[in-house]
From TrEMBL:
It comes from Astyanax mexicanus (Blind cave fish). PANTHER family: TORSIN (PTHR10760), TORSIN-1B (PTHR10760:SF14). GO terms for cellular component: cytosol; endoplasmic reticulum lumen; nuclear envelope. GO terms for molecular function: ATP binding; ATP hydrolysis activity; kinesin binding. Residues 279-336 form the Torsin-1A C-terminal domain. This is Torsin. Pfam families: TOR1A_C, Torsin. Belongs to the ClpA/ClpB family. Torsin subfamily. GO terms for biological process: nuclear membrane organization; protein localization to nucleus. InterPro entries: ClpA/B (IPR001270), P-loop_NTPase (IPR027417), TOR1A_C (IPR049337), Torsin (IPR010448), Torsin_1/2 (IPR017378). Gene3D superfamilies: P-loop containing nucleotide triphosphate hydrolases. Its main location: endoplasmic reticulum.
Length: 337
């Protein structure tokens, strides 16, 4: 009777993992009274549950470097610098059994260059459920923390969320979109979690991943890309070192960047600044072709070319870089097909 009750509870509850963990001692004591066969069944049953219900276990959370590499190569266009940095950063961190701090990435570039998309690819390479995993948390400044007058309650809430979620699963991922619109005080409030502490209030944050997305520094990145183009140099020659200085200085000095007077940078809490280059015509075409394929159509160069030519590019005369990125292409294409 009691066993049936427990099994029913297991089946019904959305918190299966927690409950399975909680009844572990009970199932041991049951084993004393009930035949060993039942325990065996229960053990197997647990595994079945782990199989269907997302848990903080390797069945659900395992990093696949190949998957990330293949995805970055095949689905992200025109971002050779970001691709390299991301792969190195994530692989290095995930393969390190004793990281000294959580992984903190700061992704910079204009909208539509692929920052959100890359966060999604990273999530998919680690969590079986990707972005819909219960261990991946996305915060958007304007949606989650819109009113400055509520700053104090946002701070408390955010700290509780991070602490609660990391307590549930150390391998949690937090993505902060629109960092440039986030109140500096709010960023300061999460700083302790990014630091080198072994534990804070008994919780270790060293397995967690924090990803910040912002447009800050976007203009400087465009300038570097434009300088290369003007000098007739190959875009592929652009390396991280060409962008690093411009990026960190601009992020630092720009009051609107969201990093303003936070000590994220001077304390070296950000492990990698990842620049996203503005897209050129050929990248827009690549996006378009991939998008047609994704829509289940035969990629048609004429259609994609037509769409790409109607998009707006800058500088006005030279028309080198697309104003919008791959994000808008999906809906645009419908119009041309
Ligand atoms: C890792 O990803 C690659 C490419 O998507 C896939 O072929 C492979 O089966 C994956 N490995 C594991 C262990 O899931
Ligand atoms: C985890 O974060 C989410 C927000 O993404 C929040 O709603 C939830 O309450 C947090 N969980 C805990 C246990 O704090």
């Amino acid at each position: 009777m009691r066993l049936t009750w427990i099994l029913a509870l297991l089946l019904c509850s959305a918190w299966t993992c927690t409950i399975v963990a909680a009844i572990e001692p009970i199932s041991t004591s049951l084993a004393v009274g009930i035949a060993a066969a039942v325990t065996g069944f229960l053990a197997r049953y647990q595994n079945i549950l782990y199989y269907f219900q997302e848990c903080c276990r390797p069945e659900w959370i395992t990093y696949n470097r190949t998957a990330l590499e293949v995805d970055l190569q095949a689905k992200l266009f025109g971002q050779h610098v970001a691709t390299r940095v991301i792969l190195k950063a994530v692989s290095g961190f995930m393969n390190n059994e004793n990281p000294k701090k959580p992984l903190v990435l700061s992704l910079h570039g204009w909208t539509g260059t692929g920052k959100n998309f890359v966060s999604q690819l990273i999530a998919e390479s680690i969590y079986r459920k990707g972005m819909s995993s219960g261990f991946v948390h996305l915060f958007t400044a304007t949606a989650h923390f819109p009113h400055e007058m509520h700053l104090e309650s946002y701070k408390t809430q955010l700290q509780q969320w991070i602490k609660g979620n990391v307590t549930n699963c150390p391998r949690s991922m937090f993505i902060f979109d629109e960092m440039d619109k986030m109140h500096p005080g709010l960023i300061d409030s999460i700083k302790p979690y990014l630091d080198y502490y072994e534990t804070l209030d008994g919780v270790s944050y060293r397995q967690a991943i924090f990803i910040f997305l912002s447009n800050a520094g976007g203009e400087n990145i465009v300038q570097v890309a434009l300088d290369f183009w003007t000098a007739g140099r190959d875009r592929e020659e652009i390396e991280l070192k060409h962008l690093e200085t411009a990026l960190s200085l601009s992020v630092f000095n720009n009051k609107n960047s969201g990093f303003w007077h936070t000590s994220l940078i001077d304390k070296n809490l950000v492990d990698y600044f990842v620049p996203f280059l503005p897209l050129e015509y050929k990248h827009v075409v690549q996006c378009g072709m991939a998008e047609m394929h994704a829509k289940g159509r035969t990629p048609d160069m004429d259609v994609v070319d037509q769409m790409a030519r109607d998009m707006s590019f800058f500088p006005k005369e030279e028309r080198v870089f697309a104003r919008q990125g791959c994000k808008v292409i999906s809906s645009r294409l419908d119009f041309y097909i």
